[in-house]
Amino acid sequence: MGRRLSRRGEDDLLSDCHTTFCREGSFTGFKPFFFADPRSLTLEVTSAHSGRYVPRIAFPPCVTGAASAKMRYPNIIRTLIPLALPVKPKLAPAKTLSKAAAKLRLLKRLHCTLKFEKIAWQSGARLIAGVDEVGRGSLFGPVVAAAVILDPEYRVRGLRDSKLLLAERREVLAERIREHAIAWAIAAVDAARIDQINIYQASRVAMREAVMRLDPAPDHLLIDALRLDCDLPQRAIIHGDALSASIAAASILAKVERDRMVREWDPIFPLYGLASNKGYSTPHHLAALRQHGPSPLHRQSFAPVWNNPVPQEVLAFMLEERPEEEFEEMKQG
Predict the structure, then answer these.
(1) How far apart are CA 135 and CA 144, in angstroms?
(2) How far apart are CA 71 and CA 92, in angstroms?
(3) Interval 250-258 mean pLDDT
(4) pLDDT at 16
């Protein structure tokens, strides 16, 4: 039968256990040893993870005759650690964000201000136009651009990247922008032209056309990530629609206008759910393309459109007008 430790032996053992647990870093407190039975030990500790006491753990009797508690209880201390330490939960593998989700997360952290407008004002510019486009990634319909010259004397509150705003909020802000801006203009390039010159060049054409329609004409441009073929001083700003109030205003006008245009085509092409997806690559839209093929207003140069196995749909009114066109050609011939 094991002998009960002396007071000094108990203190040595407690000190050893305390040092061991502090090194593990998982416990914040101890309760004294209880030697109700000299043949067994009971220890109670506080877990730093849960804040609760770990249930008391009984250990076999110590080996007698050893010189000190450190020699008597090394196995007990080693056994205590795996029994008492909380089991670390298995962490679920981190989910990989899509590029679109990662971009949205980034945009939410950015703040839309007049910083770039103030820099342009200090350089002598007076009519600063923000320019942006909407619809580059859509599979259907035009790319739409807008240009806006905000009034420095009137602040439109709530401006930010149109992708981060609810549709109802965009409508409200668009009305305020149109009412209080010094000038605004919208231009679009249709799907056929996009297929001819590619979406990048089509976006630049639409943006330049929107700038040319401004009255009064601007003397400085702030553009979302692009440079335009014009002689005006201009600055391309990465994530400009989330950083510049003028570009954000242009983004909102372009988004509202393009959504309106696509909704008007929804009753004509009801299979694709255009009123909800606005022509973008949602699962429903892609499934409709695979099943029914593209419409004449889909962008044939985009892979999800030309990769589908069903031929392009032909509008009924096109077939109806064809004989008249042939008759006119015959008369001219």
Answers:
(1) 7
(2) 42
(3) 98
(4) 58
Q: How far is CA 99 from the centre of its chain?
A: 8
CB neighbour class for 130 (10 Å; exposed up to 12, middle 13-18, buried from 19): buried
DSSP class per residue in 135-176: -TT-SBS-EEEEEEE--TTS--TT---GGGS-HHHHHHHHHH
Confidence of residue 47 (pLDDT cuts 50, 70, 90): very low
Contacts of residue 313, Cβ cutoff 8 Å, sequence gap at least 6: 292, 293, 294, 295, 296
Residue 122 carries which side chain, given as an amino acid letter? Answer: Q
Taking only the tens place, the pLDDT of each residue in 88-138 is 566 666 677 777 788 778 888 899 999 999 999 999 999 999 999 999 999
Maximum Cα–Cα distance for the chain, whole Å? 123
What angle do the packed helices 245-265 and 167-180 form, to 10 degrees? 120
User: Which neighbouring-strand residues pair with 47?
Assistant: 27
**To the nearest whole percent, how much of the chain has pLDDT over 90?**
57
Phi then psi dihedrals of residue 189, to 5 deg: -125, 125
Residues 6 or more apart whose CB falls under 8 angstroms from that of 222 comprise: 116, 117, 120, 128, 129, 130, 131, 234, 235, 237, 240, 244, 246, 247
Token pair 């140069």 is found at 301
